[in-house]
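Protein data:
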Amino acid sequence: MQKTKKNMQIKEMVLLAVLTAIIIFMTLTGLAYIPINPVLKLTLLTIPVAVGAVLLGIKGGIFLGAVFGLTSFFTCFSIDALGVILLSINPVTTFITCVVPRILCGLIPALLYKWIKPKQVAVPVACVATALINTLLFLSFLWIFFANDFLTNTELVQLMGGTTINSFTALFMAFAGLNAVLEAVSSLVIGSAVCAAGLKVWNRND
């Protein structure tokens, strides 16, 4: 019994390390984000977070969400044009915007997977939830902390292509909807497939 438990702990640590490495690697190589416009980007990092939330549970989901958030904040120092501007406006709220939504996008799907039965339904729900929570919360925090800056900060206005106050909200909501749909689809298709394969291996080795 103790040997089985120890083997499970080792497997969990290895998987956590692999998923963490994937998030960091994708961020450093630029594979993590696909630009939609100068402001919004489709991220693939919700996929390893979703996989971790399903296979590793609450602690794994929170940890990987935090790694996702920290790598996102890291891009604000040079890689991401929007992040660089936000960091110059307010480093604290930029950190909160980058990190807090990503921790929640690891925590909530792990809880959903734990609570929902059957697990065949729980897996795709958790994967889609990871993407939707990331997009909706990140954009909500962006709106709460920086909405006024998008209308008054010269650099942000230029980044948005000189968007006027009348069209800003419409553009923001349109891009938010597009971002949410694309991330949800990619997380559903890829994340669910990886989770299903991972669960089979997990059960077969237990």
In short: The chain has one domain: 2-205. DSSP finds seven helices and two strands in the chain. Residues 8 and 206 are 7 Å apart (CA to CA).
